Amino acid sequence: MVSAIGRRRSIQTEQRQKLHSPSNRGSSFAFKFVLFLFISILARIVFFRRVGIFSQIDDELQEHQYRHNFAQSPKTRLSSIGRMRATATKKGHSQQQIDDQRERRETFRAGSRSAINDGREKAETLLESDAEEVEESPEAGNSEDEEGSDVMENINGEREKKLAEPWNSEDEERSTDTESTKEEEDEKLAEDRNSEDEERSADAESTEEEGEEKSAEDRNSEDEERSADAESTEEKGKGKSAEDRNSDDMERSADAESTEEEEDDKLAEDRNSEDMERSDETENEDEKEQSAEEEEEDMYFRDPNVTVVNWNYFPPSKREPRRDASWTQTSKSTSKLFTLNEKECDRLMINVDTSPPPMRKASNEACEGYNGVLHIHHFDSGAASGTAFFSFTIGMLAWADQHNYLPWIHIEDGYTRPIWDPIVHTNTTNATFEMKTGMGIEWARDPNDSEWHIFPGKPFRERPLKSKKIILHGTGVWEHYFLPPNDFVPGDLSCRNKPIIKMTDDQIVPGIHANAPWAPRAWRSTEAPYILRSELSWDEWFKTQREHAAEITKRYIRFNPVMERRAHCAFPNPEFSLGMHIRHGDKYLERQIIETDRFLVFAEAFVNNGGHSIYLATDSAKVVETILENWPKHVADHVIYQKSVLGLTLDDKPAFDLGVSPHRTNVEALTDVLALSKSTYFLHGLSAMSEAVLYLNPGLVARSINLEDELYSEYRPESFVKSFMQLGKTQRMN
Question: Which helix (H) or strand (E) holds 18?
């Protein structure tokens, strides 16, 4: 970079010296003027082109708004229903209001992040094409610049004119028809009036002549009387004729006015009817569009045409995975845990290890017998420790077993923000290795699902397989807390000719998280009825999931020695103990918060009947304060917890939003998970961390109580002592 800048400056200096030399001094001003014109014209071309491009992109983004949201992934779409219901219930809204708000919010949600990606790609393509055109033909660019301003000024006018054309033309037709109709009516009324006047005048004249002739011939002796009578008759006739004429004129004018009013009313009615028809058509079109959108939304990640599953979700294990040497070393060093003194434990708990995981040597046998490698690259954008390291990971590990792929866990970017530490997890040099690429993962659906929810299916060859150099970023996150799931190391010679494959965002959420029937869940975070099974109790619903998740955990997931030592220091005497996971923080957004007093009755019964330590895991500083200050002293004295924890919230914020290092919050949360798994009894609510505890120690399921389960809403401490504590005592004897 420095050398390039230096060369550029030296070239500019030489050009400047030549330009100001005596031979070129006369043309210096002309050259600068031409250069200035060319740059200004080029800038104007780029500006007008970009305005057009980005206005087009803005239109597309407005049409597809909320289709991507780093935070609005499909998981957010599924879980936001629960958050909205909990928040609205907390504010006192009715269920109908909650459902109405849910419908309104669901109406405006659609699609995925591909819409924005398409817009960006289109923008980049157009900008590149513009740049090429400008470079190839600057003269054409000058002519375009002269026309550019006129074109840009007329765009809005043309759009408005185009939009107004059908309405203006219809208004002109209506006004033309109205004027022509009025003129025709006026002409017709004038002709009728003139003809009637002519007929009346002719009749009056003929009547007068006949009367005069008759009076002259027959009544000569009575001329004066007849003349007087004639005059009076004439005056009466004229008066009558004038009255009749006036009345006729008034009737005609009234008829004309009524006719005009009728015509106006008729035109207004026709216009209103046309407007109503248009509005009805518009409403029908809107309804059709809305119904189409609702149908599209209703078909969100549902497809009746994808492949129906014909493989076993939980195939019998053909062999145990080849373990990394660290598994054996950890087993041998377990006995050293009990030699840690109090000072060593304090130092270990306060100072979280941030060093990168140790380098491992490739066995060059890792991929033998496998079809390829599944790279577990990221999770959901909002997944914290329990969900990311257990729920998502177990779901993808199960897929790898189904299709004979070797799983490799290496998280290398900040997409899953709650667990990604941009300092600790990038504390290494990048490396490269080669493997084949070109495989994809198709969609599939379960034969028992009548609504066709889709999830990751079989791998398939998307394009010809080609060797590709893959750059390895960061430490991979996983091995800071766990042992590697197998002996795969990037660069293993047995894997060089095998394909490597990743799951897409949609295949992870909602594919794995919501729709895959084999994936474990911490609550009913799905829309598929055959998975929801609302007729089952929580214990019944969890039973099969926990069994399979425990098998996957035993096969692939094991904490590293650093985490084992931390759990031992946090909970040194787990014999005949009670574990309590009290999750508060932002839990109210999706599930029910269990108040601390609900745990007290069981904790007191446990202590009163010979119980030893009570291990507390919580994300709330208020919970710790309530227990230490408000619980009976003989109970609070038995409670132990991580005193060095920094990820404790004072309100409804999640622990990963407190400004604490994500690596530290990972360590603290996973220490609690491992410590709780060693307890004899377990009280908890619905939580991914609580489920992880039960995956690590499946025997604890029979001695645990989910306090969010309605079956235990009236469960009394006496029953806890008689049934659950008896199970723990039996285990101690065995």
Answer: helix 2-19
- C-beta of residue 680 within 8 angstroms of C-beta of residue 578: yes
| CA dist., res. 428 & res. 475, Å (int) | 6
The listed range with the strongest mean pLDDT (251-255, 330-334, 407-411) is: 407-411
Nearest in space to 687 (alpha carbons), one of 397, 379, 384: 384
| Structure tokens given for 240 | 């009558």
pTM of the model: 0.63
Q: What's the CA angle centered on 249, arms 246 and 255, to 5 degrees?
A: 140
- The closest of 200, 470, 475, 451 to 359, measured between CA atoms, is 475
CB-CB contact of 709 with 731 (8 Å): no
Q: How far is it, in rounded angstroms, from Cα 379 to Cα 513?
A: 10
User: What is the CB neighbour count within 10 angstroms for residue 335?
Assistant: 8
Architecture field, domain 561-733: 3-Layer(aba) Sandwich (3.40)
Question: In the chain, where are the structural domains located?
Answer: 161-217+224-298, 360-556, 561-733
CA gap 512, 507 in Å, rounded: 6
**What is the average per-residue pLDDT within 644-671?**
79
For residue 635, CA distances in Å to 573, 682, 693, 716 come to: 17, 16, 24, 18
Q: Answer yes or no: is pLDDT of 243 > 70.
A: no
Tell me the C-alpha distance between 85 and 676, whole Å. Answer: 31
Greater confidence, 63 or 368? 368
What is the residue type of 107?
Answer: T
The closest alpha carbon to 546, from 405, 396, 700, belongs to: 700
Stretch 451-458: mean pLDDT: 96
Query: d(Cα 282, Cα 167) in Å, to the nearest integer?
Result: 14
pLDDT of residue 77: 39
Q: Which residues of 154-186 are buried (b: 16+ CB within 10 A; e: fewer)?
A: eeeeeeeeeeeeeeeeeeeeeeeeeeeeeeeee
- Does residue 670 contact residue 563 with C-beta atoms inside 8 Å? yes
Distance in angstroms (rounded) separating the CA atoms of residues 250 and 443:
84
The per-residue pLDDT for range 463-515, each reduced to its tens digit, is 999 999 999 999 999 999 999 999 999 999 999 999 999 999 999 999 999 99
| Cα 467-473-476 angle, rounded to 5 deg | 110
**Rounded Cα gap, residues 19 and 496, in angstroms:** 59
Looking at 136-150, 381-395, 481-495, 703-717, which range is the least confident one? 136-150
* Average pLDDT, integer, range 237-244: 49
Q: Quick check: 533 pLDDT over 60? A: yes
**Residues ≥6 apart with Cβ < 8 Å to 408:** 373, 374, 375, 376, 485, 486, 488, 490
Q: What is the pLDDT of residues 281-294, one digit of tens each?
A: 666 666 555 555 54
CA distance 315 to 309: 13
14 three-class SS: helix
Pairing of strands 639-640, 500-501: unpaired
Q: How far is CA 290 from CA 275, 297, 629, in A?
A: 22, 10, 56
Cα 653 from Cα 89, distance rounded (Å): 19
- The CA distance from 272 to 274, in Å, is 5
What distance in Å separates the CA atoms of residue 491 and residue 205, rounded to the nearest whole number? 126
CA 310/CA 506 separation, integer angstroms:
22
Residues 6+ apart with CB under 8 A from 484: 324, 326, 360, 409, 478
